[in-house]
Amino acid sequence: MSHPEIEKRKTFAIISHPDAGKTTLTEKFLLFGGAINTAGTVKRNKANQSSTSDFMEIEKQRGISVATSVMGFEYNDKRINILDTPGHKDFAEDTYRTLSAVDSVILVVDSVKGVEEQTQKLMEVCRMRNTPVIIFINKMDREGKDTFDLLDELENELKISVCPLSWPIGQGHTFKGVYNIYNKQLNLFKPDKTKISEPVIQVSDLQDETLTQFLQAKELSQLKDDLELVDGIYGSLDKEMYLEGLSAPVFFGSAINNFGIRELLDTFVSIAPSPKSREANEREVIATEKGFTGFVFKIHANLDPNHRDRIAFLRICSGKFERNKFYYHTRTNKKLKFSNPMDFMANEKSLVEEAWPGDVVGLYDSGNFKIGDTLTEGEQLQFKGIPSFSPEIFKEVENRDPLKSKQLEKGLQQLTEEGVAQLFTQQPGNRKIIGTVGELQFEVISFRLEHEYGAKCAFRMLSYRRSSWLSSKDKKNINEISSRRHSNIATDKDGNAVFLADNDWTLNVAKRDFPDVDFHATSEFNRS
Ligand code: G4P
Question: What is this structure's pTM?
Fold first, then answer.
């Protein structure tokens, strides 16, 4: 059974390696969607990548990005929700969590640089959840890689099959435009950062004489040759494969020049999935179910120490969310009511009376929520899909002010509940270890501990480089590894046993020595 409010929603994220053009593309979508009038409205979540001294600036930008955390707009009778992800790689974990709340993604790749490190990591997260992906090859106005090589690179390095829906004619200074394979149109490129429409020439097929008016004979014959190859290698789009996350349609364009945006947006609107179903530990929850359910995927702190309120971002999964109605917070067994839930349309926040699956509402929170928490109308449910990933940097927390140990403990707990970093505890002595993917978080944590909680700490670098979550059919195996390898064992925020390894070698030795223990790369797996 379908529901018009659910069918019209398309909730997605634009993701990329920093600098490929995510912010520019987001802004252009908002422009094309009529949600903003001028470029420059979307704040760049960007900071000097090499420096850590401007972390407060970054935190401030994260603060600003509350407004841009969700950008909703209407386009072709659809309600589009773009969930923003931080650009800085040190906040990758934030991005991974946001990906748990979307139904599809658009992946931006720089035509000059091709697949980059962060592109690969993000794609791995999409693959874990079979998230449908559309790829936008950006910066075609620059001298980039050969198109066929680029597609090979996408397939090999992102481990997804691709299907070009448009094809570039030249590139860089010879870039003429793209041929839209699907709609049989020629879209001519005119570098222009202000206009939002591009000349589109409809043709019947590649033999259409009209093409000769716009393309030189050499360009046209190259296009015909290329498309013959494309047809042979990639065939036409299999929509089911796209929806299962197995095949990615590819478009080419130049975001800064507003080129290729309209066809990308139109195709996105027509093929991207609406909210469907989500896995909870107990059962699968279908979007069209009557009862409301949702989960918190992001918590945003208020940086003003006088206003400790946080905003918890709730993705609605089924039913209808209503203001001032009591909902059941399944982790704490509490009933909670929200009198000021926030909706986000482009850059404006407004009070929301009701919201539907696919929507994200911001809930003012005085400390009730943890990332991953589920709300329902009374059913005991816990949504899956927000695992912790292995951090790459581990540091022990040293208390610098023994009189403030309570504050330190509370601060660490709250900051890690917000998802700023992961907290592990190691015995003996309740050693607190913070794990992150970037150095930046340590500065953020010590600054915030001092300014918001009055606690002082220092960090001592540890040699661990990765964490694996442990499970076993028999708990005694966990006890055994815990006592024999106690210097590598810690517990995570939920009390689960974790193996901290310095490198692959240590990890492999442990796997060999404890064959009855399973080592998992993320915190989410079937705990049988
Ligand atoms: P990000 O969010 O993925 O980090 O990338 P962002 O949109 O900020 O774009 C990174 C840089 O690439 C920006 O230049 C932007 O103007 C440029 N850019 C985006 N799309 C295109 C394109 O189609 N062609 C070309 N040639 N450049 C593009 P910047 O100098 O870092 O910033 P700015 O001063 O232009 O704002």
Answer: 0.86
